[in-house]
Amino acid sequence: KNLYIPAGIYRVNDNMTFDGACSGMTVWGDGPSSVLKLATTMDEDGNIECGWTIILDGASNGALENFRLSGIRVDGNRSGISGFDVLNTCNLIVGYPDSSFHNVQVDHCTAHSALLGSGFLTYAAGIDFVDCLSYDNDYHGGGCTRAVSGDFGDADKWVRFTNFTAHDNGQATPFDGCGLDVGRYCRTIVTNLHSYWNGQGMKFSTGTEALVVRGARLAYNLFNGFQDTDTTVGTAVLDLDGIVTHNNGGVGFRLITGSNVRIGSITSYSNYCALSGHSRSGFGFTGGTLQGGDIMFGTSTSVLTSFTADSLRTKASPVVGVLVDGNVR
User: Fold this and answer.
1) Which residues, in sequence order, are bridge partners of residue 67?
2) 3-state class of 267 per DSSP?
3) Can you tell me the distance from the alpha carbon of 315 to that of 122, in angstroms, rounded to the nearest whole number?
4) CA 248, CA 196: separation in Å to the nearest integer?
5) Which of 191, 202, 205 is closest to 128 using CA atoms?
6) Are the CB atoms for 188 and 182 separated by under 8 Å?
7) Nearest to residue 320, comparing CAs of 271, 255, 248?
8) 42 phi, psi to nearest 5 deg
9) One pLDDT digit (tens) per residue for the chain, 329 residues
10) Residue 147's CB: how many other CB atoms inside 10 A?
11) Which of 182, 176, 183, 226 is nearest to 201 (CA)?
């Protein structure tokens, strides 16, 4: 029950849903030339009919296991559906699937709700994204989030982004849309991330359970290269290594939370700059306060208590190289 999609453009008028009955299935194409493109068909209420372009549903018909999507491009067709009330056009993963995306490209997604205009969005664990590309979407390039804790099951149920590339995302929300957003209650492993020309390079949010990074280059983003927005919980387990962040409009690396933080190496330089060469020029930060710089740990209101690091490197810092708030050990 495998499915081959040869090179060509295929108009998608309704959700393509793969549930538990599709366990063990492989859907593959010839790479970016095999295009699934959202059509412009409207329903009676004036909404684009499709909704999610592709859904992996591990909550219906049993768990979705060993499903693989490979060599496909998904086009959200933002220009073709401009002016309509678009429900959402990104790819959604829900329930408890054990599945993988290999060499999948997604672009031009839009929605009336910002988050739903992301490229990849998963509400489940056990997902691998390998050699995937997400660009020119309204919100995040990729994201994972859960509404409540404890939904990820066994300890091996992680979300993994390997050789993930995201650029020019955040078109509708230039200071918020990230190349990669690791959301609440997620356990995520990121290996060799390339995130550039987005609203932000990478962030994690309130309630993140664990984040492991092994190599990330975050550059030329409008706002911060790496940041967290967790100001209340502070319980995340963070293991970060091989992060290089440079030429971002805001802080290169900012960390204000975490009670178990282990850092290998961070290299951060030439941040807090006006990105005059950016495709959305006019943004950027050029002020001279300690709100920006290359590496920042903690603020007066943060919940970061301590961290250990092997190597912190900065150069050509226009404001400050490394700033550690007095509340941090």
Assistant:
1) 99
2) strand
3) 37
4) 9
5) 191
6) yes
7) 271
8) -105, 155
9) 799 999 999 887 767 788 888 889 999 999 999 998 877 655 545 555 545 567 777 666 777 788 899 999 988 877 766 544 444 445 556 556 678 889 999 998 876 565 667 888 887 777 899 999 999 988 889 988 765 555 444 445 788 999 999 999 987 776 778 999 987 778 899 999 999 999 999 998 767 778 899 999 999 998 889 988 765 555 568 899 999 999 888 889 988 876 678 999 999 988 876 544 444 433 333 333 334 578 888 766 666 777 889 999 988 666 678 878 766 76
10) 9
11) 226
Residue recorded with tokens 């329903």: 43
Name the token pair of 130.
């390998």
Under the phi-then-psi rule, with left for phi > 0, alpha for psi from -120 to 50, and beta for the rest, what region is 234?
left
Q: Number of helices (H) and strands (E), helices first, in the chain?
A: 0, 26
Q: What is the largest CA-CA distance in the chain?
A: 61
The answer to whether 269 and 302 are in contact (CB under 8 A) is no
Name the nearest CA neighbour of 251 among 229, 231, 223, 230: 223
In eight-state DSSP terms, residue 321 is: S
- CA–CA gap between residue 43 and residue 12 (Å, rounded): 14
Residue (of 195, 205, 192, 147) closest to 170 by Cα position: 195
In angstroms, the first-to-last Cα distance of the chain is: 56
Helix (H/G/I), strand (E/B), else coil: 314? strand
3 state SS of 86: coil
CB atoms within 10 A of CB 194: 18
Which one-letter amino acid corresponds to residue 6? P
248 to 7, 26, 60, 227, 244: CA distances (angstroms): 37, 39, 43, 12, 11
Quote the Cα angle for 112-116-157, to 5°.
Answer: 165
Sequence-ordered list of residues with C-beta below 8 angstroms from that of 302, at least 6 positions apart, any chain: 231, 256, 257, 325, 327, 328
Which backbone phi and psi does 21 adopt, to 5 degrees? -70, -10
